[in-house]
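Order emerges. For instance:

***
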Amino acid sequence: MSISEKPVAIVTGGSRGVGEATAIFLAKKGWNVTITCTSSIKDANKVVKKCEDLGAEALALSADVSEDSSCRETASQTLDKWGRIDSLVNNAGTTKFVFDHSDLEGLDAQDFLKIYKVNVVGPFQMVRACKESLLNSKNPSVVNVSSIAGIKGIGSSLAYASSKGALNTMTKSMARNLGPIRVNAVCPGFIQGEWLKKGLGEELYNAALKNIQDNTPLGLAVTPDEVAEVIYGFIDVSKVITGETFLVDGGHHLTI
């Protein structure tokens, strides 16, 4: 097995949104990338093509991070192709939209278990699958894509906010115990794009976007590309930072 001269990253949930933007950003910076998805392999292959057009090598895999076997297979296939893993971006996530957090009947135990299995257990399993390979890297990092919801207790549902809070706590625990692997979390606010538009519906999405643009200190809502830039900073720029939960929200948290 030959070892890639370029650094290698795995980006889960890489077929669209922040995951797609991160994979493309890494490709521009000279990284090879594995991206995973659960049900959108055609979109994932389009991202692979975009990365290849930038001179990178890329691999798309169908993988459910809530299943440990999928996580281990993702790491294994990445190693088979390039012989190394230098960074892991845990971007795959899920939710159930119940915006009224007082509506406790809107969620049940199965909703919590499904959301936690993807949003918390999934990142844990991915880190476990990649740990030994990351320790062989000269610049190992994990970036967990969390949310302002996990800090402020807001967002698409109480279960989602709780899962992101758990992910933030796990980030700190991993950073404390897995060094020299750096482990950080990026916590975006409202992210412009199709995922939120689909979940909110176009009318509510547009109203929420206008509210953020009118009432936040910077007067803007972040884009996937802007989140990807911060993720890359944790991966390959800020090499003395670990255990951080970094808000990327245009100051939205200051208004709540």
In short: The mean pLDDT is 95.
